[in-house]
Amino acid sequence: MTITRSDPEPPGDSPLGGSGSRTATQQIARFGHPVTRMLLASHGFTQPRLEAILGTDLQVRVLRQDELAAEQLPATVADALRLAGPDRVIVRRSCLINADMVTASVNYVVAVSGPAAATGADDVHAPIGRGLISRGVSQRRHVLRAGVTRWLDGRLCAAKAYVIMLGDHRPLCYIREIFNPSVVPPEHAPISDEELSWADEPDYPRSQPARRATARRGTRDTESPRTGGQCARTLPGLVQPPECEALTADLAAAARGQTFVVHFGARSSPAFEVGTLPDRRALAICAAAVLNHGFDMPIVTIGQLGYDGETCRAPADCDTSVGDRRPQENRGVAAQLENWRVSNPAIALCADMLRDAADDYPASVARELLVEVAAMLPIAASAPTASRELYSSIAPLYISCAVRSCEPDPTRRRTTTRQEWDRSTQLLWIGGRNHEFTSRHLSFAATVRNPLAVTLGPTATPDYVEFLCRYLNPQRRPGRLTLVPALSGTRTAAALPALFEAAARCGTPVCWVCDPMHADDPAAAIRGFVSACRTTGTAPAGLHLDCEPRSRLDTRLDTRRALHCVVTTLSAMWAS
Question: Domain-by-domain residue ranges, the chain?
């Protein structure tokens, strides 16, 4: 039997955060609105009460979850949970949102690691209260404090903190909930600055360190026709086969509707200009954060890499580097790739990018969504000192590059016993803005095990789709083949069902990604793509976005247009 109740504050106890000698009951009485007083004094779980206020179901979104030592916590929280120095705790930041993506509350949770694992409270996919009920865990709530603090946009909002106690009187977790002032009225008696401070979070570093670069093995010397002999030193492989396999698995999940892909390309400028690299990285983080917030599923982000070399040689095995590149050129490309994958731009840049897009958005719901995600990004990006990260909504990036004019290497012996990879990239992209590729590009792509993406131009027919499926993925490997129909005035969404059905007829799993950037109305193209997918039972697996400068004089990226496409995709998939 599950027992849930809330105990009043014991007389004489000092509430958490130094707000004087008022008990929780006295603090609640200072709120002016009866709905707020009811919510703060509730004896049950908060989520059902918020659902009753909003008249809709709420879903949990975990922004970040970390594990750290109890000694990193403020004394007030450690004392409330009866923690000792050797203990470890889970620190979670989450929010509750409704179907219109309105955030009802933002929650800060500190759970004792052992009891949390035993009761399922460490599950990022389930609200703690409902998870405990489903497991029949006996519990009670001890309210420590109720008061006001700041909402994500700086407005005053209602808040409360409490401890969930297990049936054997062990503390399970400390929870502080802050409530959207547009949902829960925050009117309150006059307060001091001291009462706004809760002082219950661990110290956070000012900036998150960059991810550690993946260690890469050296590879055998290769012959460079530009130098006329052996390279002076070994050329490092730019990517490793396991990375390609991981991307293949992610694309297979996207084709099943379990993840969502965002590919960032560039139509008229090099994809990796030094000046635009921070903006491109920030845009990828923004898009992933917005989509993760709306879908509650992993987001696969892929960035386009441009090489200076115009040709590439035959595919390499696992010990040989691909490419007709000189050593210095190879090192330059490797440096660009590592900077793209491991560097984190300032979260302030990401937040400004989202707010900039929000200012230009006419729909209030979409505007509020972008503003709220901008405010939540620092929560998702900041880790407590000495933490061990378990979950984060900011996804790592994969790399793609276009197949160049591929010539066979007559001096290289072909092997049939070893798997072959193009180690210059993780995803090979066939076809660009003009959709110009030849049989040599296809024959090269067919010989490597990398995942492949093919742009479908306006003349692509169902028979051609079937040919691509059979030629490029004869083993029908999930995640191997991604097809990207470019929607425009000559190819509308009405033509898509026939293409989807052609792939289905030959039994080839395909990851279908929408490219709306050529259409006169990208938003209508996205809605048409999602509708065509739903009509045929196809999973809308991703979105291709071109990242272009705003103008010849303004070299900054047009991030507003890209983020508007992201929000449109989110809205279209929620509505379908």
Answer: 6-196, 255-409+416-575
